[in-house]
Amino acid sequence: MPGSEAMRRLVIQGDDRPLWQGHSRFSDALAALVERAAGRNRDALAAQVPGLAHVVSRTAASLRSLPDRPESVVHGDLVPPNIHLDEAGHPVAVLDFGFCTTVGDPAFEAAVTAAVWDMYGPDAAHHTAELTRLFARELGHAEEVLDLYRKAYALITYDLFGTGPHDGHFRWCAALLR
Hints:
The structure is a single chain. Helix content is 51%, strand content 7%. It has 8 helices and 4 strands, in the order ααααββββαααα. A hairpin with a 5-residue loop joins strand 2 and strand 3. Helix 2 crosses helix 7 (143-157). The longest helix is centred in the last third of the chain and has 16 residues, at 124-139.
């Protein structure tokens, strides 16, 4: 489903300006957000991620080098509680837009979904790997692009709930970046 111009004006949670402001390509807008977000609480993240400056610059450069892709709605938080099913188990509604809602590459949505579907469960790494392979095979996304988008997601969301070792999301993001 194509996104709207209004969706291009949305702010990704944690940032202070619309994602697409000053950009005409999703990958360029995301790279700029990665650079801004990495600077928000750089010291806390650098304490957990050796070579953070290199990780950020490599991620941003890789995003900028991606070819243009068809754009669609990006929800950014497709997890089981946000997908409502009918009695037969068919999806009938998607809720909780807003956290990372925008217009962008469907591969970004696939990468984020694979990563957050079971991010804190005991089998999270296995589920992420399985969903990544499934999305690559069934949706035609390159696994290396999914991995790149997962790193970008970690860099833009690492500090949304806290920046210390007590915060599960912060620890999860730091682990993705090592």
